[in-house]
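Sanity check

After download, print the first record. It should look like this:
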Amino acid sequence: MSLVLYGRSGEADSQNFMKCLMKMHAKDNKGVLFYETICSFREQRHTYIEAVPLPFEEFQDAPAYFRVRSPH
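Expected structure tokens:
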């Protein structure tokens, strides 16, 4: 189960937090690469979203290496 499937309020909260992280790192001329990992432990599913700040020059090349999730 992706975090997106847990409902609009959970998705909105995570997107707002991501926006705050992006604004914080933009002041240092960095972009933020987010990736989601989904694990199952004894019938329970857990979602982890990692945030990796990158220098803006490297961040611009990220779509060449990662699949970009399109907005809804």
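If your output differs, re-run the checksum step. Summary of this record's structure: DSSP finds two helices and two strands in the chain.
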